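Field reference: sequence -> structure
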Amino acid sequence: MVVELKSTPIHRTLQRVVVWFRLVALVWMSSLVTATVLDSDASVGWVAAAEIVAVLGTAATFLLARQGLLDSWWWVVIDGAATAFIVVSPGLAASPDLFYGGYGLSWIILVVWAYPNVLAGAVAIAVLVGAQVVGESLGVRSTTWTGKVGGLAVWVVSGIVYGWALWALRVTDVGREEAERRLAEERTQKSLVEARAAIADDIHDSVLQALGHIQVHSQDADMARIASDQERHLRRYLDRISAEHPDGLEVLLRAAAWEVEDRHGVPVEVVSVRDCRRSEAIEGMVAAAREAMVNAAKHSGADSISVFSEVGPDAVTVFVKDGGIGFETSDASAGHRGIDRSIVGRMERHGGSARVSSAPGRGTEVELTLPGGCS
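Structure field:
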């Protein structure tokens, strides 16, 4: 998760916050160092050493930020050691006052920016709390327990608050990028569907109408047959390019319907309400629907077959219906007019089901259901 968060643009934006807060912390500390040297008997050597380390740490922060290395683990460790020294330095200098200002806080912010996880934040807090305890034990400051606890609480609260804030900003940015990506994909898909639909309409209004005219008015039987074959070929092409998914449920069902028409000479009308991407389960469902169409074409005696598919949030459903002779569903001798076991098997392998309803003289309807929608 850390790698994912660090890869976001906001990581680079927050780097500027880390860098400039370090500069503010240096200015803050420098003013306190000046006051300490002028107003106390603290050891100038230790105070100057702390100031030099802070200046070098700030310069290195700017340099590494320009090189893209500010979040390197080795720099976080080195900077942490330098910060720990700066926090301890008032005790080493026997200073009656703390003069490191916000420098320690700037390192906490660096840590939770570079490694936005609980472990890194906890380690940073522990290091600074330990350094402050050591500094208090070495120094000459007279601090009440309330002051000690309050001072330690600053590190703990800062680590938690800044760590949570930077992590929340990153998570929000990840969510925004994901939402923008999905929206872009949806817009692209919509544009493709609209473009394919426009092409289909243009072909329908020109080529298909011309072929239909040839079939009706041509005196040449061969020419009429060629026109008919070309019309069927183009209609299959239009079915593919006008569908929401070029290889989805609707296209597969229409291809199966064309196949049944070619082999058995019975027209099959396909109506689809919403579409579904191709998957193993969808392929199995279409194969089951094809078998139901073949059964209807071979045994129902109907002049046409209707196929209706619907993609809902909880299930995908396909109905294959004919207006043929029908049969009594309770009649075990109905045989091939019922649901073949292969149809049931195809559906059950994917967690689906198949159901038949029929009556003598009222046709037959096969209902195929695949739970779970398009998942």
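Note: The CA atoms of residues 317 and 369 lie 5 Å apart.
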